[in-house]
Amino acid sequence: MSANVANESEAPRHPPRHVAIVMDGNGRWATARGLPRPAGHHAGVETVRRIVEAAPALGIETLTLYAFSSDNWRRPTTEVAALMALLRRFVRAETARLAEAGARLTMLGRRDRLPGGLAEAIAAAEQATAAGTRLHLRVALDYSARDTILDAARRAAALPSLTREIFARLLSGDHGADPVPDVDLLIRTGGEQRLSDFLLWECAYAELLFVPRLWPDFSAADLADAVAWYAQRERRFGGFGAAPAAAAAPALTAASPAVVPSAA
């Protein structure tokens, strides 16, 4: 990952500080090309690299990626094993690049069920990139928003008082001076239109953008289009204001007629 992807002065005037992405469509991308599903996950990792490189120049400070949900353990054992091995290699290979680029990596979700040294690789990567300030990259792995909320509620029960800010810190596990901001823009690739148990609390006022393009085909230009679309939205947070200007969703279409959005 290059630390000099683009000049931050090129970022939109009102970019989303926190962008979350449901990276959907890897398996369908592979199947449409006659490839085994794990090939789609390999292609998806390349997309992660280019999106992480592009994010800071667009004014994005926090990027949260949904890599593996707690419900994904139901998928075929061979596919899950291949994905976990790929994630382990990715974390180990990218740690130095992230640190050089000034990116801080943290993981959300359970770690007690992760196989083969993955949890240890994650912990080492978090420690090595802890000083990063250019981008906070958060990867949700074995993650369930409902389980996270339940766990935070259990811990909150022991506190003498509770506010939204305190609860948000419990959710993120970030007890430092600068808690993770709420999600401003949530993007889901692959054509599906649901949150799938992802950042339910944090997305309370997020702008939701569902695009048919499959994740391996999602580009830095697509991310820039999504950020530009967000910048046209009027953020009222329940207050009263002028009617929002009409903002057409970016034309992020499927890569080819052969790739048709369908159930994952």
UniProtKB/TrEMBL annotation:
Molecular-function GO terms, alphabetical: ditrans,polycis-undecaprenyl-diphosphate synthase [(2E,6E)-farnesyl-diphosphate specific] activity; magnesium ion binding
* Cofactor detail note: Binds 2 magnesium ions per subunit.
Record-listed substrate binding positions: 25-29, 37, 41, 69-71, 73, 75, 188, 194-196
**Superkingdom assignment:** Bacteria
GO cellular component term of the entry, any: cytosol
CDD domains, A to Z: Cis_IPPS
Gene3D superfamilies reported for this sequence: Decaprenyl diphosphate synthase-like (3.40.1180.10)
Q: Where, by residue number, does Mg(2+) bind?
A: D24, E207
Sorted keywords for this record are:
Magnesium, Metal-binding, Transferase
List its EC numbers. 2.5.1.-
Cofactor dependence is on:
Mg(2+)
Q: Name one GO biological process term.
A: polyprenol biosynthetic process
Active-site residues are: D24, N72 (proton acceptor)
Q: Which Pfam families match?
A: Prenyltransf
Describe its assembly.
Answer: Homodimer.
What does this protein do, in the record's words?
Answer: Catalyzes the condensation of isopentenyl diphosphate (IPP) with allylic pyrophosphates generating different type of terpenoids.
State the NCBIfam families in the record.
PRK14839.1, uppS
Instruction: Family membership, please give it.
Output: Belongs to the UPP synthase family.
* Protein name (database record): Isoprenyl transferase
Q: Which organism is it from?
A: Rhodoplanes roseus
